[in-house]
Amino acid sequence: MPFCFLMYIYYHFSAHNKRLQYKVWNLVIQNLPWNGQGKVLDIGTGSGPLAIELAKKFPLSLVWGIDYWGKLWNYSKQKCEKNARIEGVANQVVFQKASASKLPFKNGEFDAIVSNFVYHEVRDIKDKKKLINESFRVLKKGGAFSLQDTLKNQKKFGTIEDLIRQIKEWGVQEVNFIETADEIPMPNFLKFELKTMGLLYGIK
Ligand SMILES: C[S@@+](CC[C@H](N)C(=O)[O-])C[C@H]1O[C@@H](n2cnc3c(N)ncnc32)[C@H](O)[C@@H]1O
Residue 204 gets which letter from DSSP? Predict the structure, then answer.
């Protein structure tokens, strides 16, 4: 791939230029069918952008952000807490070190769950369906979810039809799927970069 092309893609997706990245985060929040009353969990929060946006959008909510904060990413609990302070929501957000594969929460503890671009990264459990089931475990019946990742990567997640069927078998009442690239206006060659990205949202 020519260098200029790679730089152009980097320009759109990099942490320094968040134009597209913001749209990707926003898609998760826009599709969360929730009224903002109660507790929401951001699984694999990174530097905390989704958790912080949720706190701003839902001022009555309490927001938890968990992450493994491994060496691969330049993120940390301290960085998240600093970002929350800068954005004026520090008293509304709790950041905690934990793995998405074994969440330190009770069954049904959260009114809503979100996650962006995390499940494909998780290495401490092989079966992605078990991993996603762990997220649903901590969501209460009737709670809302919006989960975005490379869900169309069949090698990792199986077919999307199978995944939806499986989620419904866990007792989740409403499951919708949209393709990220269809929802965000962008040049076609950038759509190619997002071709495996999809978002599951609905009500447990
Ligand atoms: C691509 S980043 C996404 C971060 C954030 N969700 C966002 O949208 O900016 C992937 C994140 O997954 C986290 N991660 C990887 N394995 C994890 C695990 N087992 N449990 C929790 N988080 C994990 C990484 O530490 C990293 O912060």
Answer: -
